[in-house]
Amino acid sequence: MGRAELDKDPHDVAAMFDGVARRYDLTNTVLTAGQDRRWRRLTREALELQPGQRVLDLAAGTAVSTVELAKSGAWTVAADFSLGMLQAGAQRRVPKVAADALHLPFADESFDAVTISFGLRNVADTARALAELARVTRPGGRLVVCEFGTPTWTPYRIAYQDVVLRRVLPAIARRVASNPEAYTYLSDSILDWYPQRRLAEIIAGAGWSRVAWRDLAGGAVALHRATRPA
After folding, report:
1. Residues 77, 95: contact at Cβ < 8 Å?
2. For residue 155, with 0-12 CB atoms within 10 Å meaning exposed, 13-18 middle and 19 or more buried, which class applies?
3. Type and span of the H or E element at 39
4. Which tens digits make up the pLDDT trace of 184-207?
5. 138: buried, middle or exposed (CB in 10 Å: 19+, 13-18, 0-12)?
6. Do you know which Pfam families this protein is assigned to (predicted)?
7. Any binding-site annotation on 117?
């Protein structure tokens, strides 16, 4: 897999995730020192879900995030374009759908809320994916994007990018991941990703309103929130 900005062919990215599916959840927990659990909870809380509402969890992978959302009492569906990831989460008892973020197989205004965690940067057209999410969300519905960000404190940003992403992450992946080479792509995709303010502008340009974000882990991760205009 080449540099992230040069190679986001959906088939290649799906195949890459198929290759890491077997130990994906374990690897995430190790790489984040367990913070992935907290980020899933904060995503659920930011969506402000109510029992009986319908929620789309896009790029859900093994559906561990979907199970977290279901704790709210909302009806949740996991969607991902990697069949390997969905199969790895087969034991999780939530609905699962194979889906392309650029061509969602859902009718207009199907959901009260939509979310995508650590998957938006893997889509070939960010704005188009966000517009598709807006299409399937009812007016007044909510969006939360949990994604890697750019640390706000310069010394931390330099250490995070040069040490954590380029050295530590690949070293850990070689020990615990089922396809360590895929994590070279992961590092590249994070380094190439938009800073928080620029992503907020893209979200607004895709048809969402009231866009805001909250930095986590010193800005290494960010929760972006938005509403579909009524």
Report:
1. yes
2. exposed
3. helix 35-47
4. 778 888 999 999 999 999 999 999
5. middle
6. Ubie_methyltran (PF01209)
7. yes
Model confidence pLDDT, tens digit, residues 64-89: 999 999 999 999 999 999 899 899 99
The reply to whether 80 sits in an annotated binding site is yes
Question: Is residue 55 within 8 Å of residue 68, measured between CB atoms?
Answer: no
Q: 188: which 2 tokens?
A: 């590249």
The structure tokens 């939509």 sit at 114
> Is there a binding annotation on residue 101?
yes
Over the range 201-216, which residues count as b (16 or more CB within 10 Å of their CB) and which as e? ebbeebbbeebebeeb
**pLDDT given at position 8:** 63
- β 75-80/137-148 pair status: unpaired
pLDDT tens per residue, range 7-50: 566 666 667 666 666 666 777 777 788 899 999 999 999 999 99
DSSP H or E segment with residue 173: helix 169-176
100 is in an annotated binding site: yes
The residue among 23 and 156 whose pLDDT is bigger is 156
